[in-house]
Amino acid sequence: MKVLITEDQIRERVAALGRQIEADYQGKPLTIVAVLTGSLILLADLIRQIGLPLRVALLQASSYKGATMTAGALIINEAFAPDVIGRDVLLLDDILDTGHTLSTLVARMHERGANSVKTAVLLRKLGRQEVHLEPDYCGFTIPDAFVVGYGLDFNDDYRHLPHVGILDGMA
Ligand code: XMP
After folding, report:
1. pTM (2 d.p.)
2. pLDDT per position in the chain (171 positions), as tens?
3. Which of 17, 53, 87, 88 is most solvent-facing, going by the fewest CB within 10 Å?
4. 8 is annotated as an active-site residue
5. Where does ligand 1 bind, in terms of residues with CB under 6 Å?
6. What range defines the domain where residue 113 resides?
7. Is 168 part of a structural domain of the chain?
8. Residue from 94, 97, 144, 157 carrying the catalytic annotation
9. Residue 56 maps to which CATH number?
10. Pocket test for ligand 1, best of 39, 150, 152 (most atoms within 8 A of CB)
């Protein structure tokens, strides 16, 4: 495993993102909608850096089948989706890759009556985007390699690692 982003770097960056979000959402009805499962750890760390009243909700989106790196059809599970009518939604995902997941979810939040919809990602992969979407908050830009850790998985493993890394042979 090659460590790409250390635990300390993540902590500092997440704290900075939290301060930025706190400044931007003063007095607004903020709902953070996290995309399962990859953004779970980011969600837990980020919300504790935002000193504002906020709601948390979850959505599940999956486009990767098992170990393959080919995007399949996007499956969205809204079983735990929030009532976002009149709310300022901040969609939170682990990584912006092709952009299909977040752009679909942004449209979905508008359809569900959100007052505004912004996006936040821990990582953004260079040179992979197929859909135009500028994340409003982004932790780190990374090269085009398959990464794991801090919520990101390979075959549902490695999510618990405190850093982001590239598995040997996956660069
Ligand atoms: P799109 O292509 O829709 O993809 O922007 C976003 C989702 O794809 C998954 N993804 C990854 N997961 N390591 C992972 O563990 C990666 O390098 C990676 N690249 C994309 C992830 O689920 C993300 O939410």
Report:
1. 0.93
2. 999 999 999 999 999 999 999 999 999 999 999 999 999 999 999 999 999 999 999 999 987 554 344 445 788 988 888 899 999 999 999 999 999 999 999 999 999 999 999 999 999 999 999 999 999 999 999 999 999 999 999 999 999 999 999 998 776
3. 53
4. no
5. 35, 38, 63-64, 71, 93-101, 146-148, 152-153
6. 8-143
7. no
8. 97
9. 3.40.50.2020
10. 152
Residue 54's DSSP bridge partners are 30
User: For the chain, how big is the Rg over CA atoms in Å?
Assistant: 15
- In a domain, residue 53? The reply is yes
Q: 81 lies in a domain?
A: yes
Q: Amino acid letter at 85? A: I
Number of domains observed in the structure of the chain: 1
Ramachandran class of 10: left when φ > 0, alpha when ψ lies in -120 to 50, beta otherwise: alpha
